[in-house]
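The protein record quoted in full:
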Amino acid sequence: MGALVKTEQAEAVAEQQQYLTFMLSGEVFAIGILVIKEIIEYGQLTTVPMMPDFIRGVINLRGSVVPVVDLSARFGRGKTELTRRTCIVIIEVGGDGGESQTVGVMVDAVNEVLEIPANEIEPAPAFGAKIRTDFIQGMGKVDGKFVILLDVDNVLSVDELAMLEGAVAVSSGA
């Protein structure tokens, strides 16, 4: 009997996924922690000419040039207002051929890491959200409120990754 209970608990834990939650224009969003490399304080960005508004610039992260995307601007909400809690979340997104790209995403503030059971995640709504539905992986229910779970690969699509890689090459002189 004890082994059966332990097996059920292990399965329940396996169904939960951890998400980093953060604020963006007064709403709570989340990204699965498996793609997050680190969180850094908002620092000096180098702007890159002729980039879309949602690309705020590039940063030097231990010798690597990393493009920084303003998620608020990416979602069509205008540029993020800088505060002392503004952070850059460094994530690794997949590309074609199994290649990955390191990208920074600018957020208003980082909240916490939450475990959200799979049975507490609803599919993305077909309407009502203030961002494109292909950007939403699902809606997590936490304490009676919804957290928007982002699909990072769609928020930073393959086409845009190619554009970001071009921006990095230009800014690094490659």
In short: Residues 84 and 137 are 29 Å apart (CA to CA). The first strand starts at residue 16 and ends at 24.
